[in-house]
Amino acid sequence: MILSQAAYEVRAVLRNGEQLLLTLIIPVVLLTLFSATSLLDLGPGDRVDFLAPGVLALAVMSTAFTGQAIGTGFERRYGVLKRLGATPLPRGGLIAAKTLSVVAVEAVQAVVICAVALALGWHPHGDPGSVLLLLLLGTAAFSGFGLLMAGTLRAEATLAAANLVYILLLAVGGVVFPLDEFPGGVRDALELLPVSALAEGLRDVLQDGAALPGTPMIVLAVWAVAGLALAAKFFKWE
């Protein structure tokens, strides 16, 4: 039952034009545009080496947070969650199915983004296990707060808030704009954001060959625990 529901969730995302734009097309366009042009000063080295980890972090945020918050919020509004709760699929199974669907969509995103980045001349380094751990921690952090938003706000408010957060974190989260461009105090605060921690952690591994970037992992773990705990406490199914 969980696998069937997860497969349905994946198909729903891939068939939704707006969701597909958010989760796949925008990250690929940003990666291609800023890698192929000099619109931004990204420091020394190949531009794609800086951009690819940040775009991977953006893809995780777009699926685990923005897309999941909006989709779940409208399912809650239209009574879909209430009806699913009355089926043999338990509520815990529904959450598990949603988690599996998020991971499956992220896997598709990662394959496409990495393929485009490699075609643009990307040369990744580091341990794949560390990359996977960072992505899972980032997924947990964003999923927790996405479900918290979907389970506490009205669907229209979730739509507006999730898109606003997406745009703000894209602008100041170190995804395509280097955090070094910000003043010291501001930069220190921005490094505590989950998307900043994920992007910088992935750069530490994929660009610099670090083994386990401790600070980004701690930041993501704190966000993950806080988000999932708050979602478990305050999420309303109806």
Automatic annotation (TrEMBL):
UniProt keyword Membrane present: yes
Transmembrane stretches, start-end: 20-40, 52-74, 95-119, 131-150, 157-177, 217-235
Gene Ontology BP annotations: response to antibiotic
Membrane topology: Multi-pass membrane protein
GO molecular function: ABC-type transporter activity
Pfam families: ABC2_membrane
Name of the protein in question: Transport permease protein
Record organism: Actinomadura decatromicini
